[in-house]
Design brief:
Number of helices: 7
Radius of gyration: 60 Å
Strand content: over 45%
Shape: rod-shaped
CATH class of the largest domain: Mainly Beta
CATH topology of the largest domain: RNA Polymerase Alpha Subunit, Chain A, domain 2
Structural class: mainly beta
Low-confidence stretches: 1-19
Length: 475
């Protein structure tokens, strides 16, 4: 096959057929493009391997750190505020060859400010310096950082506890302690000077047993506001160990112990302690063993009226703590002793019944000529009756009996009279009949202290009329 060219069309001559065909122009175009691409790749490879041109790589978010920290502290200076937040991050532009362009990453770059050259407190602006392990630094944005520098102040502040809520009812805080009583803080002088104490908050509402735990501390100023600790040095320890001893509480009555005896006429009505009970805290076994807290013995020998005395109870010996005043080890108890005459019930047997207005020549028989009287009275009145100071008399008035009535029985009502001897110091204040029909007599007299007192006598007897039978004579 032979090829012939004319001015406009490429043709092929087929020797077998002697026919002529045109050469396609599209194929020629594709061929030219392919040849051009091959030459371009060869040229690009040459440039990349031989020339290796420079490129700029920009990396964002590079954290800025400090150098010269120890030099700054040596001058007793400190950056005010949260330095990590103030320094922030920068963007760094790095020039590198094409081959290492994608190797330039944030971990290959560092950015720093030198605070070791700061000589005094105040506001300073420092240049941000960057370094890279690949390529060279072209620029840093922002290129400077402004810091506020303060004098370094160190002081010790007391540690206190602030309680949230209260212990459940029936429990008591016996003792508290801190692992450390004070906290040393170092930081910017203008901030440290505001701090007056360190406080930890202790929740109590769920505590029923002794505990020891670590709690966070906050710094507080004189107004009670929290002081932020940003800019403080590592010497600041924001925690403390707090311990609390918790004991159970119990209300225990006071029991008064009595020694000696009163005379037969008197009795101890009551001994009332003040306080009558106290709330104490103690170990479980101690509280369980206490049914009462006993006073010392009070001697009542020789007393015949009320009196007040005091006694002491040593609580420390008992192993308990007084809740109202934990530091008080001796409890003073006032005891009001009420002493009164005994109220007794006594029977007066065979009390004679006299007959009034009976003629001398008349003989008669009475259905009963004595009676028994039941007395409820203060003890001293019995003595007055037995000595005759109080006189009791029962009588009847002789009834009118018709002539020739011998052998017949007539009835007369009993009469009673109570009187006092002429030398008695008592007076009869009043006489009444109670709901049982008994005679109630109230006497007034003065006791040994010159006080006017009252004594009561209640008398009851059989009030059945007395029968009289005339045996001789006439009325």
């Amino acid at each position: 096959m032979a090829r012939k060219n004319d001015a406009s069309v490429d043709v092929y001559e087929d020797s077998s057929t002697s026919a002529k065909k045109p050469f396609p122009s599209k194929f020629r175009i594709i061929l030219r493009i392919a040849i051009s691409l091959i030459f371009a790749l060869i040229l690009w490879g040459y440039v990349m391997t031989t020339i290796n041109p420079e490129r700029i790589r920009e990396v964002d978010g590079i954290a800025v750190t400090t150098v010269g920290d120890s030099d700054l502290l040596t001058r007793q200076l400190v950056v005010k505020g949260d330095i990590a937040s103030i320094l922030g991050t920068v963007s760094v532009r790095v020039q590198t060859d094409v081959n290492h362009y994608f190797d330039v990453t944030a971990d290959k770059i560092t950015a720093r400010v030198n605070i070791g050259d700061i000589m005094e407190a105040g506001v300073v602006t420092l240049k941000v310096s960057a370094e890279t392990s690949i390529g060279t630094i072209e620029s840093v944005t922002p290129s400077t950082i402004t810091l506020e520098v303060d004098n370094l102040e160190t002081k010790s502040v007391p540690i206190e506890a602030a309680y949230s809520g209260a212990l459940p009812e029936g429990y008591y805080c016996a003792d508290t302690s801190f692992g450390n009583d004070a906290l040393t803080i170092s930081g910017p002088k203008t901030i440290v000077d505001r701090v007056i104490k360190a406080v930890c908050t202790i929740p109590l509402s769920d505590k029923t047993e002794t505990f020891s735990r670590t709690y966070e501390l906050v710094l507080v100023d004189s107004a009670g506001d929290i002081v932020e600790t940003t800019g403080f040095t590592s010497a600041f320890t924001p925690t403390v160990i707090f311990s609390m001893e918790i004991k159970r509480t119990m209300t225990i009555p006071i029991e008064v112990l009595i020694a000696g005896t009163l005379t037969d006429a008197y009795e101890l009505v009551e001994a009332v302690p003040q306080p009558s009970s106290i709330v104490v805290a103690g170990d479980e076994d101690v509280l369980n063993s206490l049914t009462s807290i006993k006073t010392g013995y009070i001697d009542i020998t020789g007393y015949n009226n009320d009196f007040v005395t005091t006694t002491r109870i040593n609580l420390s010996v008992l192993g308990v703590t007084l809740i109202s005043n934990p530091s008080q080890t001796d409890l003073t108890v006032s005891v009001n002793l009420k002493i009164d005459e005994k109220t007794i019930t006594h029977t007066l047997y065979d009390q004679e019944i006299s007959v009034e207005n009976s003629p001398d020549d008349v003989e008669y028989i009475m259905s009963r000529n004595t009676l028994d009287a039941m007395c409820t009275m203060d003890y001293s009145l019995l003595m007055a009756i037995e000595t005759g100071e109080i006189k009791l008399a029962w009588s009847i008035e002789m009834p009118s009996i018709p002539n020739n009535s011998n052998g017949q029985m007539f009835y007369a009502d009993l009469q009673f009279k109570l009187s006092l001897s002429e030398d008695s110091d008592m007076i009869i204040a009043k006489q009444t009949i109670n709901s049982d029909g008994d005679l109630v007599t109230t006497f007034q007299l003065y006791n040994d202290d010159g006080e006017l007192i009252e004594r009561t006598l209640i008398l009851s007897w059989d009030r059945t009329p007395i029968g009289i039978t005339l045996t001789s004579g006439s009325i």
